[in-house]
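[AMINO ACID CHAIN]
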Amino acid sequence: MTTARTPAAHDVTDLGLAAEGVRRIEWAEREMPVLRLIRERFERDRPLDGLRIGACLHVTTETANLMRTLKAGGAEVVLAASNPLSTKDDVAAALVAEYGIAVHARRGEDRDTYYAHLQAVADTHPQLTMDDGCDLVSLLHSDRPDQVREVLAGTEETTTGVIRLRAMAADGALGFPVIAVNEAQTKHLFDNRYGTGQSTLDGILRATNILIAGRKVVVAGYGWVGKGITSRMAGHGAHVAVVEVDPVRALEALMDGFQVMTHTEAARWGELFITATGNLNVFRREHFEAMHDGAIMANSGHFDAELDLAALRALAEGHVREVRENVQEFDIGGKKLHLIAEGRLVNLGAAEGHPAAVMDMSFANQALSAEYVSIHHAELEPRVYVVPEAIDAEVARLKLAALGIVLESMTPEQAEYVSSWRHGT
């Protein structure tokens, strides 16, 4: 454990949980060698010296190691939760009491508290934003437009946030450049697919303890998240159907061996429903009415808007009860439908989120992107940028090196061959 210090500014549940938080943060760090290597370099070079960073991220052990890395680079960091159910209270306590990082996050906080915590981050006048869902960026632009000019740049962690940012940029509303960390290959190919695939299954099993084998599972959305979930469900013996609006993705799902259905067909067929679209009201009143008694619903998209919860509550007419921890039962005229983690992110609301080994790459991209924009912000326009290829390649190189894997190199002849147009038949 680190030496005790005066706690940083905070609104957390219980600082007495800090010791357990430290143990879990250190356990996660064992699986995050790339971020550890970056932190060691940051401690030497201090590339973020004096930079104020406001972060709105899931307060987990993996995020804690990112915060430690940013602080090691010289940044002044303040963190709020990006989801009311994703905060690990012991981690929040450890960040404040043991690592001297300001945190405003409590598991289960209500909507007013959630936004009060975002306002607390904004009060520090961040020069760099770090978002998971675009809530901090949105708050600054809508509530504090005068502060927008103080922000040099931002980074965005997830698909939903990138969608919102691109909409802002298209409207000419985005006031500073943002790096879409989600678009890095070393992020979405691994975090979105393998991380969400495993952690979604984990959350569902912890909440319900159901048998997946033989169960009819419907996955709405076949982006990288949906692909990860379907592969893990199929691997456990489920019969899987996919709902998609994109014809190419639907065709890909079909050729990957899954059924493709409309929402209405899927509602009549499925037993377990998982949303992963980044959109709203994916399953609605008419779908709830068509579902079988005992159907279970979970969300792996960012916000709890993917399921029409207002319609579900209206159908239940107040007949709602908690039947297991993190499982609500809605009685709609004798038929019972079940909802996990209040329709919020199932992998964080009912489990611990992604394994640290995959978040290692995602948060390495965050740290290196923060370093990049601290140097190059003046060259960037107020729009959404992908992670520079050099950063993506560096993260992959560091990860392979940490795993003890050595890549083959092309011979000079091979390098000349692939770079020349003169070679033919």
Notes: The first helix runs from residue 18 to 29. The chain has 18 helices and 16 strands. Residues 326 and 341 are 5 Å apart (CA to CA).
